[in-house]
Amino acid sequence: MLSVRDLHAGYGGKTVVRGVSLDVPRGEIVTVLGANGAGKSTLLKAIIGLLRRSAGTVELDGRPLPNETPDRALAAGVSLVAEQRELFLGLSVADNLRLGGYQRRGAPDLDTDMQRLLDTFPVLRKRAGQPARTLSGGEQQMLAIARALMAKPAILLLDEPSLGLAPKIVDEIFAIIAAVAAAGTGVLLVEQNAAMALDVAQHGMVLELGEVTLAGPRDSLRQSEAVTSHYL
Ligand code: ATP
Questions:
Q1: Alpha-carbon distance 17 to 228, whole Å?
Q2: pTM greater than 0.85 (yes/no)
């Protein structure tokens, strides 16, 4: 389980995330809802050390996740798919996937895992030799998720995976996210599409101006006036 306690983070002197606590059990999806600028991306960046936390702790299965660089978080088992996807656009789909498994290089099951991911994402198998830049937006999002999964993370952090994608592709992406969780990975899902996020998540929270103003099981959020009036 990923446990975040009283996390504070920001930019320069400006605190953006103020005292956020949350738990993401393995095999479950926890969604973070919030308006633009609420601090959702900042929260994810501070969890993995893309941004230094000014206070608070992050633990995976009781072991502290260092307040350092994302590669340390990745080695510990926490992987982020950033909003910008950050693919290697000039490299092939297959090479992007191989790079996702960089920290596991030499592992005997690396190739099997890549084949399994290509089964999960048939469109990536079809395009395995193509440069990532030739993929559609939806395919690039799938590649970004598949690349993150090549690290075999215990916890996957997803920042707005549906952003800018056609409804049919969004359905596919959400089905994949649900399957990833069902296979045992914990997912922390930041989404603007609150209705779909609450369909797949077990728990959720609302972030406003960097603070959690509401949190609970998905059905309690769905029924909450604050969520229905602002996010659904
Ligand atoms: P969105 O849905 O628009 O991505 P968000 O909830 O993810 O919003 P953040 O991107 O975390 O919000 O931004 C929270 C606040 O931090 C905003 O006021 C934003 O302007 C500020 N901010 C984000 N990135 C930086 C940065 N690199 N330097 C300074 N301020 C930043």
A1: 24
A2: yes
Nearest-CA residue for ligand 1 atom 25 is 11
Kindly report the three-state secondary structure assignment for every residue of 171-215. Answer: HHHHHHHHHHHHCCCEEEEECCCHHHHHHHCCEEEEEECCEEEEE
Whether 87 is covered by a domain: the verdict is no
- How confident is the model over 128-186, as pLDDT tens digits? 999 999 999 999 999 999 999 999 999 999 999 999 999 999 999 999 999 999 999 99
> Tens of pLDDT along 53-63?
999 999 999 99
16 lines ligand 1 (CB under 6 A): yes
Which tokens sit at 17? 């995330």
Residue 52 sits in which domain range?
Answer: 1-75+189-232
Domain CATH number, residue 45: 3.40.50.300
CB of 43 closer than 8 Å to CB of 32: yes
Tally of structural domains, the chain: 1
**Nearest atom of ligand 1 to the alpha carbon of 159:** 7
Query: Ligand 1 mean position to 87 CA, how many Å?
Result: 21
